[in-house]
Amino acid sequence: MFNSIKSRFVAAGLASVIGAASAHAADITGAGATFIYPILSKWSDSYNNATGNRINYQSIGSGGGIAQVKAGTVVFGSSDKPLDPKELDDAGLAQFPSVIGGVVPVVNIEGIDAGKVRFTGPLLADIFQGKVTRWNDPAIAQINPDARLPDGAITVVHRSDGSGTTFNFVNYLSKVSPEWKSKVGEGTAVSWPVGVGGKGNEGVAAYVKQIKGSIGYVELAYALQNRMTYAAVQNAAGQFVQPSLTSFQAAAAGADWKNAKDFFLVITNAPGENAWPIAATNFILVYKQPKDGAGTKAALDFFKWAYENGGKQAEELDYVPLPKGLVEQVEAYWQAQIKL
Amino acid sequence: MAANSSVITPAITAAIVDADRRSARDARADRAFRWIVTAAGIFVLLALACAALSMLRGGREAFSTFGLGFLFSTEWDAVNHHFGALVPIYGTLVTALIAMIIAVPVSLGIALFLTEVAPDWMRGPVGAAIELLAGIPSIIYGMWGLFVFVPLMGEYVSPWLDAHVGALPLVGPLFTGPPLGIGMLTAGIVLAIMVIPFISSVMREVFLTVPTRLKESAYALGSTTTEVVWDIVLPYTRSAVIGGIFLGLGRALGETMAVTFVLGNAHQLTASLLMPGNSIAATIANEFTEADSDIYRSSLIALGFLLFVVTFIVLAAAKLMLRRLSRQEGAK
Do B265 and A190 touch (CB under 8 A)? Predict the structure, then answer.
């Protein structure tokens, strides 16, 4: 069921085993979000082949990544939730995006195919708050005139563990529903009004597949690779868009990066006709004035290499590479902010 | 001895000296042995005390912020930093209780079957199979529970319970709810399957220690197998059997992965066993990696401490009950 995911990890595991056996080239240590682990492993492998340098990345979660980089035990940390400029300043950290992903609502409704059911943001918020409880609710029927939705109860499935996926999803719900914002709020873990919690993307995916009438949210890669019934969502421009690499890319390109100090921007509800409303960014944290200058330089070299050469690999794993303009902005930011 | 020393041949003197030396050496060795085993015993106590104290220390922020309310609050809100342990404690106790209700009679049956009833050629293979079951890692039980057992529960068992038992008075509310398949009942059943090998293999071992002549005497007096089991085997082995049950109970209370997969991990207090809940161990496993504020982390560690306390109370209560039982026995 999770073959492709598994093979990614197996490949990564092999890479690290083989890596450990060979000589000590420059090791670039990092820790943080699990979200980028598969693509980082892939990049790391190719980068090792190209340059001999290796990335040693521990996917311990965003919270752990932030803590580790602040403690100075790793060269870079990675987080699905951006730190605000003040927190960055206090810690002396710089922040930049690494890769784009996103969150997709998935459903299990008898007779409904992928992409055939549509939601608006406020409707999603109502469902995840337990205010809309049946699939034939007029609020759902109204925006799904063509879909024949059954008279069944809705079971909400959410993440049971703290997660960047949750953060981006509830950040979106907070942006589109004032009631969600005041009653539930946003964070990597929230107090869910209703529903059951699955551990990890795979846990949510498994629950949604097994519980009839359920709705959950997973990363795009999980939705695509497990052939789940994903849904279209109305974006800020009023268009119903399907989740795809193209719509994610549109969200990344349309987001207002230019005015985001330290790239402090969550790109949910991004403007643009084709933009996917729940796109997400992974962020990398490094010290502005690192003690280990060589290590930080090696890390930046790696990300520079990944921006230039890693796009195809990212797309193969259902990640979206950063748009060109954003890469230029990141590199200018390095020049200006990081003293090596 | 000094007076006789002149008549004792040097050989004998040497033998005595040697024997003295040996007994001194034996005494030394015995002392060392005592020290080593005492150290091992103290080590366990120390490890336990250190674990409990460090968790209490880690959880002190939660305890001081929420006070006693931490024990009775059902809230678990990481955004607003309100944490309460009632839902996980309740889930832990309920799932362990369900597990024991199922596992104890079944394990007893397995062990008695293997020691008293089964033909010889079956005892080896079935015994080995049970020990094999005990060795399966809990993540496998979790996966199996999620992918095999949960659909069965959701498709057949839950709807049936909801329709037939849910309407009954008293027990009805325990068995109403949507057919999710996951929930406290499912978790309890998976836990039962996990602890059965532990309990039954302990029971089997202790049943084998019952002296044959006791059993044969009973049989000779005309007892049936049932009577031998109830009047000879069980009374003879009772405390060891209870020990086996404790072992299983301890595992059921602290089990993490398997429960996480099938319990539903929802911080909601519901009477229905068909609804999702949460357990202490599952909450910690789920949320510790991304616990991003001090009070959040502290609350999770405090939960760990509470698991200690809950386990201690449950085991102590069971011990007390046992003591009262044996006193009644003595009075009879």
Answer: no
Q: Which amino acid is at A166?
A: T
Please, which residues bridge with residue A216 across strands? A106
Please list every residue in chain B whose beta carbon sits closer than 8 Å to the beta carbon of residue A69.
none
Which residue of chain A has the CA closest to B257?
A199
**A chain contacts of residue B260, beta-carbon cutoff 8 Å:** 160, 199
Superfamily holding B68-331: MetI-like (1.10.3720.10)
**Cα–Cα nearest to B289, from A73, A96, A101, A66:** A66
Q: State the total domains in chain A.
A: 1
Q: Where are the beta strands (DSSP E) in B197-304?
A: none
Contact B265 A198 (CB under 8 A): yes
* pTM, entire model: 0.80
pLDDT digits (tens, 9 = 90+) for B172-215: 878 887 778 888 999 999 999 999 999 998 899 899 889 989 99
pLDDT score for A3 = 47
Best to test chain A binding among B139, B156, B290 (most A CBs inside 10 Å) = B290
- Whether A100 and A199 have beta carbons less than 8 Å apart is answered as no
pLDDT tens track for B289-326 = 777 788 888 999 999 999 989 888 888 887 887 778 77
Q: Which of A193-202, A226-235, B2-11 has the highest mean pLDDT?
A: A226-235
Give the pLDDT score at B135. Answer: 87
CATH number at residue A310: 3.40.190.10
Answer yes or no: is A130 within a domain: no
Cα-based distances in Å from A177 to A129, A171, A180, A182: 11, 10, 5, 9
Angle between helices B234-254 and B294-331 (to 10 degrees): 170
Angstrom CA distances, A150 to A153, A275, B62, B151, B162, stand at: 9, 30, 45, 20, 21
Q: Which residues of A touch B286 (CB under 8 A)?
A: 160-162, 197, 199
CA A216 to chain centre: 15
Contact criterion met (CB below 8 Å) for A179 and A159: no
Residue B31: CB atoms within 10 Å:
10
**ipTM rounded to 2 decimals:** 0.74
The b/e string for B273-309 (b: 16+ C-beta within 10 A; e otherwise) is: bbbbbbbbbbbbbbbbbbbbeebbbbbbbbbbbbbbe
Q: Which residues in chain A are contacts of B159 at CB distance < 8 A?
A: none
Residues from A contacting B (CB-CB < 8 Å) are: 60-64, 66, 153, 155, 160-163, 184-192, 195-199, 203, 206-207, 210-212
Q: Tokens 């080590």 appear where?
A: B43
pLDDT exceeds cutoff 90 at A1: no
Quickly list DSSP for B13-39: HHHHHHHHHHHHHHHHHHHHHHHHHHH
Q: Is the dihedral of CA A74, A75, A81, A84 positive or negative?
A: positive
Q: Average pLDDT, stretch B233-255?
A: 87
In-domain check, residue A321: yes
